[in-house]
Amino acid sequence: MKEFVVYTLARIGLFLASLLVFFGVFAALRVNSVLWPLVLAALASGVASYFLLRHQRERFAARVDARAKAAAARFEQARAKEDE
Fold this sequence. Notes:
The protein is mainly alpha-helical and 84 residues long. The protein has 3 helices and no strands. It is 89% helix and 0% strand.
């Protein structure tokens, strides 16, 4: 659960930082638009998170994989017990 929270908060932080930058740029250019900063922030934070959050994503994926393997093992154990 901790890995999920850390990764999610990092993604949100990257998005908010990107959003502030793009709102600042659009405000400096005196463009009254909300849609474009949102779209550009989503794209920029997505690309940035791919490179900057690789370690957090790998830890999160490892945790999910371990939980899936444990659940599969419990399922197989229950199935084997049922077959007896």
